[in-house]
Amino acid sequence: MIRRIVLASNNQGKLAELQAMFAPLGIELVRQGELGVPEAEEPHRTFVENALAKARNAAQHTGLPAIADDAGLCVDAFGGLPGVDTAYYATQFGYPKGDDNNVTALLEQMRDVENRRAALVSTLVAVRTPQDPEPLIAVGRAPGEITQERRGSNGFGFDPVMFIPSFGKTFAELPPEVKNANSHRGQAARQMVELIRQRWL
């Protein structure tokens, strides 16, 4: 019976968000840093390959089942980029790494772009062992449009410029509970909870 799963991330926010969703399964999520797991290489060009690499790395080092996510912003006008390079987006344009600089760089790059369509994508991958031939894969996608300027003060990342047409607001203008219920990560986490319930428990 699975009681503990390693989260292949050291992000406190991610841990708290996912822990709350996994609680009903009676599963405890443990951050990999607490178990001395080194960061995995992420050389791949797709979210699913990077998430799988991170999950396998955590399972390999701990002997426990592991779950990892890889997420980013996919902009239509840029052929789906920045994608897996989202966290480092600003550094391509001479800015230091960081959420706020990423938003600044994106607004500058899109200044004269008419097609504002984009999606925030989160891919969660879970493995029972490093060699698990059947990883569980859940993908959440929040499509929207990039605004011309920042709006709202909630959230993080690209939330202030990610306009969600069904709400008529950016993610940063929504209450956190509404955002989390509809965000790419929220969607992926709900799918993953169901997959674990069906396949592993």
Characterization of this structure:
This protein is an alpha/beta fold and 201 residues long. It has one domain (4-199): Maf protein, CATH 3.90.950.10. 30% of the residues lie in helices and 22% in strands. The protein has five helices and seven strands. The protein has helices spanning 12-22, 47-62, 99-109, 176-182, 184-199; strands at residues 4-7, 28-31, 66-75, 117-127, 136-146, 162-164, 169-170. A seven-stranded mixed beta sheet has the order 2-1-3-4-5-6-7. Helix 1 (12-22) packs across helix 5 (184-199) and helix 4 crosses helix 5 (184-199). The longest helix is centred in the first third of the chain and has 16 residues, at 47-62.
Which properties best describe this structure?
single chain, 201 residues, alpha/beta, Maf protein, seven-stranded mixed β-sheet, 5 helices, 30% helix
Give a quick rundown of the structure.
This protein has 5 helices and 7 strands, in the order βαβαβαββββαα.
- The total number of structural domains is 1
**Pairing-aware structural class of the strands and helices?**
alpha/beta
What is the CATH architecture assignment?
A: Alpha-Beta Complex
What do we call the CATH topology? Maf protein
**Mean pLDDT over the full residue set:** 95
User: How many H/I helical runs?
Assistant: 5
Kindly state the percentage of residues in helix.
25-40%
* Strand content bin: 15-25%
Q: What is the element string, with H for helices and E for strands? A: EHEHEHEEEEHH
Unreliable stretches (pLDDT < 50, length at least 5) are none
Q: Biggest sheet, in brief?
A: 7 strands, mixed
Side-by-side strand order of the widest sheet: 2-1-3-4-5-6-7
Q: Span between N and C termini?
A: 7 Å
What integer value in Å does the Rg equal? 17 Å
State the total count of DSSP E strands.
7
Instruction: Provide the CATH top-level class.
Output: Alpha Beta
- Tell me, what's the shape? globular
Catalytic activity: ITP + H2O = IMP + diphosphate + H(+); dITP + H2O = dIMP + diphosphate + H(+); XTP + H2O = XMP + diphosphate + H(+)
InterPro entries: dITP/XTP_pyrophosphatase, ITPase-like_fam, RdgB/HAM1
Active site: 70
Cofactor: Mg(2+)
